[in-house]
Design goal:
By secondary structure, the chain is of the alpha/beta class. Helix content is 41%, strand content 13%. The chain is built from nine helices and eight strands. Helix 6 links the parallel strand 4 and strand 5.
């Protein structure tokens, strides 16, 4: 079943773990090899100019299956809000780990074209960089807030005018903790400038942790749930939209629980 086929997706309870996941006491040994194969294959395709939206979705879904093969359990809710959109939107969510960057394409791209706002240094990565560049992202430096705002507003409006929705994580850095004070309103400002709705996104992805030496390759904990929930579209011109997005994220994180000590 494709992740976007129904309003809610849940990893089937009878989905088996891989043999290596069952034998190894370290889930990372079973998880990262298939992930690296997917990333390397995607990088080769991107360098050849053959990495299109369909390839992006296939690679993302492959990551989901690798997660499930080591015992991670994924829940996606609120897809009716995504399918009910009459046009492009700005998806505004919290940012916990590498996981959402890999998984969201398989959730959203089959419904409507999307791209990310990303840190410009990611575009210079030797393998992952060509993959990201092929998806026409909006790059920001995060050193000059004024320049970043201009890049997001101008680049976002251009892509939205072409029917491409934008995924943005306003808190910037990945963190299991959600701090509203670090969650800026750039996504809401972009939506208002372009005249498109804001779709709040709450996620919990700390099952894929950050590494000490390589941030994208940290501890994997299959006992932790992986959750995505999309809220009802919000009008960008409403002065309460930013507060509504923050409230949606906070309420869902509180309901999911288990984050206090992480």
């Amino acid at each position: 079943m494709a992740l976007a086929d129904h309003d809610t997706y849940r990893t089937p309870p009878d989905r088996p773990r891989s043999l290596l996941a069952r034998l190894s006491p370290w889930p990372e040994l079973a998880f990262y090899p298939p992930v690296l194969r997917i990333v390397l294959r995607s990088g080769r395709q991107a360098v050849r100019g053959a990495y299109d939206a369909e390839a992006w979705v296939r690679a993302s879904l492959g990551i989901v299956r690798a997660m499930e093969a080591v015992g991670m359990r994924l829940t996606v809710e609120g897809m009716d809000h995504v399918r009910g959109l009459g046009g492009p939107a700005v998806f505004v969510g919290n940012h916990m780990s590498t996981l959402e960057t890999f998984v969201l394409p398989s959730i959203l791209q089959p419904v409507r074209p999307v791209t990310f706002v990303v840190k410009d240094t990611l575009l210079r990565y030797p393998v992952f960089g060509p993959v990201l560049r092929s998806r026409d992202p909006i790059a920001v430096g995060r050193d000059n807030p004024r320049e970043d705002l201009r890049a997001v507003l101008d680049g976002g409006r251009d892509r939205l005018s072409r029917g491409i929705s934008i995924i943005i994580f306003p808190q910037g850095i990945r963190s299991p903790a959600f701090d509203p004070a670090q969650f800026n309103s750039i996504g809401v400002k972009l939506a208002a400038r372009a005249g498109v709705p804001v779709v709040p996104l709450a996620l919990r992805t700390d099952a894929w942790g950050s590494g000490r030496w390589l941030k994208d390759f940290g501890r994997v904990d299959p006992s932790l749930p992986v959750r995505f929930r999309f809220g009802a579209p919000l009008p960008p011109e409403d002065k309460g939209t930013q507060a509504a997005v923050v409230r949606f994220i906070e309420e869902n994180l509180a309901a999911w629980g288990g984050l206090e000590d992480r």
